[in-house]
Design a protein that fits this description.
The complex is a heterodimer of chains A (315) and B (356). In chain A, 78% of the residues lie in helices and 0% in strands. Chain A has 315 residues and is mostly helical. Chain A is elongated. Chain A starts with a helix and ends in a 7-residue tail after the last helix. About 8% of the residues of chain A have low confidence. In chain B, helix 1 crosses helix 9 and helix 3 crosses helix 4. Chain B has 356 residues and is α/β, with parallel strands linked by helices. In chain B, the strands form 3 sheets. An 8-stranded mixed sheet of chain B has the order 1-2-6-3-7-8-11-12, sandwiched between helices. Chain B has a two-stranded antiparallel ribbon with strand order 4-5. In chain B, strands 9-10 form a two-stranded antiparallel ribbon. Classes of the chains: A mainly alpha (315), B alpha/beta (356). At the A-B interface, helix 1, helix 2, helix 3, helix 4 and helix 8 of A face helix 1, helix 3, helix 5, helix 6 and helix 7 of B.
Chain lengths: 315, 356
C-alpha cells in the first residue's frame, strides 16, 4: 500500500472516530467516506488472489453495514423520548442482518453473465453479440429454431422465477423464526447483552438453529434442488444455443468436443487395461521363469547327485 | 420492555474499535507475503496424467516396529495440502516426526480432458498404480492406507478389491452410510440433477461444491466470517493462518464429471456400501473381503459427514480387528485444529505401531 493510501486510511479513521464521538453530543460531525476503504481494497487486489480480493471487499462491505446499523441504533438510544421496544429493535436488527447476509445467500443463485447476455439476445437485439461481432452478418438463423429456443427459455425462466420465489420465501421464514427466537432469548437472558456484537451473535446463533430446522424439511431440500436444477437447465440451454451458432459458422461446438473426449477416454481406458493385462502377464511370465530356473537348478542338482552316487542308478 | 442493555457510550466505543480493527486489518493485508501452503519437504515419485504421488520421508524410522509406508488418499474435493497446511498445522509433518514415511496422492486439477474419468479410473487405475509405485519405491509388498473423507470411501473399495496389498487401513471422517437422517449434505446433493450439471459443464465446477457446503451454514460461513475477519487480521501470523485456510477453502478443483456422477449415483442415491451391489469397473466390491486391521476415526461435530454416517462401517466391514474412535472437532478441524496436532498423529502412530 502506498504511503498516501495509508495516510488516507488513517485520515478516514480519525474522521470516523470523531464522528462516533460526536454522535454522543449535540454537535454531530461528518462521517468518513467508506469509498476510501473500498479504494484501498482495489489497490490491494492486484497482489491478492481473486478469492482473497473478494473476501477483503466483503469484509469492508459487511463492516460498513454493521457500522451503519450501529449508527442508527446509537441515534435511537440517544433519544430519551423514544421508548425501547424489544420486538421492534430485534426486527430491525434481523432485517438489517438478513439484508447484509443476502449478498452471500443469493450470490450463487444469480443468473450468470453469459445467460444474461443470452436473454438479451432473445430480446431480438443482435447488437448484444458484441463479443462475437462476426455473428452479426454471418449467421442466418432459422426463424423456427429461434422461436423454439425462445419458448424453451421462457419456460425455464418461469420455472426459475417460481423456484427463486419459493426459496426466498423459505429464507424469509427462517429470518422471521430467528427474530422470534431471539426476542424470546433476550427476554430470558441474564445478564442482558451490552454490545452490538453480542446482539449480533445471538441473532446468528438463532438464525443458524432455525435454518438447520428448515434445512431438515423436505420442502426446503426440494426448493434448493429445484433452484439449482433450473439454473443448470438455463446453462444447458445456453450451451445448446451456442452449439447452433458454432455449427452455423463451421466451428466445433462444445458437445462435439465432449464426444471426442468420450471416444478418447474409451480408447485410453482400453489401452490402460491392455497395459495392465500385459503387466500381469509379464509378472506371471517372470514368476514362471523364476520357477523354471529353480526347477532347472533342482534338476542339475539331482543330476549332480546322481553322478556322484552311481550305485543309485542300479536301484 | 427492553432486554438488552447497550449504552450509547459503549456502542460508540465498539464501533470505533471495529473501524480501527478494519483499518489495521487492511494495513496488515498490504504487508503480507504470498500465502504459502504445503511446506514440508517432499518429492514426487510418480506422475500419471494430472496426478502426482508425493513422498514425505520420515525424520527417523530406525526404532519403529512398523516400517510399512503410509499412503494417504485424499478426497477429489478440495486440495490435499490441508494435511500440510503450515509447519505447525501439518498432519503429514507430525507423522514424519514420529517416524512414519508418508506418500500422498495429489489429484491435481481436472479439466475438460478428464471429464470422462470414472471411479474405475480412479480406484482401479490411479490408486492401484500409486500403490505399486509406493511398493516399488519403499521396497515393500504391501502398504498401510489412510483415506480421508471421499478418499476413505475410495480406500474402502480399494482394500476390498486388493486385500493382499493393504496391511492396515485407516478411514478418517469417511462416509459409509450416505442416508442417515442427519446427513444434510446428502439430502441436498440428492435433489440436484447431476446429469444436467454434466450436460451444462462437462465437469462439476468446484465452486458449485463450495456453495453447496456453504449452504449448510450460510450465515456463519458468509456474513459472520466477513465481520470477524478484521480481528483475524490483527497480526501477520494470525492473518496468514486465516488466509491459508481461506485459500484452501476456495481452492476447489472441478470434479471429473463422470466420476462425480457415478459417485453421487452409487453412494448418495443408491447407498451401495449399505445396500450392497457396489461395482467399480466391472468388479464387485465386497467390504467383507478386507479382513485386516481397520481404524475408523470420525469427528463429533462433523456437519458434512456426521458420525452416524461413519459408524455404519462397523456393521459391514470384514475386518477382524476393527476399532472406531470419535474425536472432538469438525470435519476439517479434526486434523487441522491446533489441539489435533498432537492427539491425532499420536493416535495414528500408536495404532500403526501396535499393528506392525
Amino acid at each position: 500500500m502506498k504511503p498516501n493510501q495509508l495516510d488516507a486510511l488513517h485520515q478516514w479513521l480519525e474522521t470516523q472516530t470523531a464522528h462516533w464521538q460526536s454522535l454522543l453530543t449535540d454537535h454531530e460531525s461528518d462521517s468518513g467516506d467508506w469509498q476510501t476503504l473500498l479504494d484501498s481494497c482495489q489497490s490491494l487486489a492486484p497482489k491478492q488472489s481473486a478469492d482473497q480480493a473478494e473476501l477483503t471487499e466483503s469484509m469492508v462491505r459487511q463492516a460498513k453495514g454493521f457500522s451503519l446499523y450501529g449508527e442508527r441504533l446509537l441515534r435511537s438510544l440517544k433519544n430519551p423520548g423514544q421508548p425501547a421496544d424489544l420486538e421492534q429493535a430485534v426486527k430491525d436488527l434481523s432485517t438489517h442482518l438478513h439484508l447484509q447476509a443476502g449478498e452471500s445467500f443469493y450470490r450463487h443463485w444469480q443468473i450468470p453473465e453469459p445467460l444474461q447476455q443470452l436473454l438479451h439476445q432473445f430480446g431480438l437485439s443482435p447488437s448484444s453479440f458484441s463479443s462475437f461481432p462476426f455473428l452479426h452478418s454471418s449467421v442466418n438463423r432459422s426463424r423456427d429454431k429461434h422461436q423454439q429456443q425462445l419458448q424453451q427459455l421462457q419456460r425455464s425462466l418461469d420455472e426459475f422465477r417460481q423456484a427463486i420465489t419459493l426459496y426466498i420465501e423459505l429464507q424469509n421464514q427462517v429470518s422471521q423464526r430467528a427474530s422470534d427466537a431471539m426476542t424470546e432469548q433476550l427476554r430470558q437472558q441474564v445478564p442482558a447483552p451490552e454490545s452490538l456484537s453480542e446482539l449480533q451473535q445471538i441473532w446468528v446463533d438463532c438464525y443458524e438453529r432455525c435454518y438447520q430446522q428448515q434445512l431438515e424439511t423436505s420442502q426446503y431440500q426440494q426448493a434448493y434442488g429445484s433452484l439449482g436444477n433450473t439454473i443448470l437447465t438455463l446453462q444447458q440451454q445456453s450451451r445448446d444455443y451456442w452449439k447452433q451458432e458454432f455449427r452455423a459458422l463451421g466451428l466445433v461446438p462444445n458437445s462435439d468436443y465432449l464426444q471426442l473426449m468420450q471416444h478418447h477416454h474409451k480408447l485410453r481406458k482400453s489401452h490402460k487395461q491392455s497395459q495392465r493385462h500385459i503387466n500381469r502377464l509379464e509378472q506371471t511370465l517372470e514368476h514362471q521363469q523364476q520357477q523354471l530356473t529353480a526347477f532347472e537348478q533342482q534338476l542339475k542338482q539331482l543330476q549332480s547327485d546322481s553322478a556322484s552316487h552311481p550305485e543309485l542308478d542300479h536301484g | 420492555m427492553s432486554r438488552f442493555n447497550v449504552k450509547p457510550e459503549r456502542l460508540a466505543n465498539e464501533l470505533i474499535g471495529l473501524n480501527t480493527q478494519l483499518v489495521d486489518g487492511l494495513h496488515t493485508l498490504s504487508q503480507l507475503p504470498e500465502v504459502d501452503v504445503g511446506q514440508s519437504s517432499h518429492h514426487t515419485i510418480y506422475r500419471e496424467d494430472k496426478l502426482q504421488l508425493n513422498y514425505y520421508p520420515a525424520d527417523n524410522d530406525s526404532n519403529r516396529a512398523n516400517n510399512r509406508p503410509l499412503l494417504i488418499v485424499y478426497a477429489l474435493i478440495n486440495r490435499p495440502y490441508i494435511l500440510d497446511l503450515q509447519p505447525d498445522r501439518s498432519l503429514i509433518r507430525a507423522l514424519n516426526q514420529r517416524g512414519v514415511p508418508v506418500y500422498l496422492i495429489d489429484w491435481g486439477y481436472p479439466d475438460m480432458v478428464d471429464c470422462c474419468l470414472d471411479l474405475d479410473d480412479y480406484i482401479n487405475g490411479y490408486i492401484d498404480n500409486c500403490v505399486s509405485a509406493v511398493c516399488q519405491h519403499s521396497g515393500h509388498t504391501s502398504i498401510d492406507l489412510l483415506g480421508v473423507c471421499q478418499g476413505g470411501a475410495f480406500s474402502l473399495c480399494y482394500s476390498a478389491l486388493n486385500p493382499e496389498r493393504i496391511g492396515n487401513l485407516i478411514t478418517l471422517v469417511t462416509p459409509v452410510d450416505f442416508k442417515t437422517p442427519d446427513n444434510m449434505l446428502s439430502h441436498l446433493a440428492q435433489k440436484l440433477d447431476l446429469n444436467l450439471a454434466l450436460e451444462a459443464n462437462g465437469n462439476i465446477p468446484g465452486h458449485m461444491l463450495t456453495q453447496t457446503y456453504n449452504a449448510l451454514m450460510p450465515i456463519r460461513l458468509g456474513l459472520q466470517k466477513a465481520l470477524n475477519m478484521p480481528s483475524q487480521l490483527a497480526t501477520t501470523e494470525s492473518a496468514m493462518n486465516f488466509l491459508r485456510m481461506e485459500k484452501w477453502i476456495n481452492d476447489s478443483p472441478d470434479l471429473a464429471g463422470e466420476a462425480c456422477r457415478e459417485f453421487v449415483q452409487k453412494f448418495f442415491h443408491d447407498n451401495r456400501f449399505i445396500e450392497g451391489g457396489l461395482e467399480i469397473g466391472e468388479q464387485a466390491v465386497e467390504l467383507k473381503h478386507f479382513t485386516g486391521p481397520l481404524l475408523n476415526i470420525f469427528a463429533a461435530r462433523d456437519h458434512l459427514v456426521p458420525p452416524s454416517a461413519s459408524k455404519a462401517l462397523r456393521a459391514i466391514t470384514g475386518s477382524l480387528d476393527y476399532q472406531e474412535l470419535e474425536l472432538a472437532g469438525g470435519h476439517i478441524g479434526v486434523f487441522v485444529g491446533r489441539h489435533a496436532q498432537q492427539q491425532l498423529p499420536d493416535l495414528l502412530n500408536d495404532w500403526l505401531e501396535a499393528h506392525a
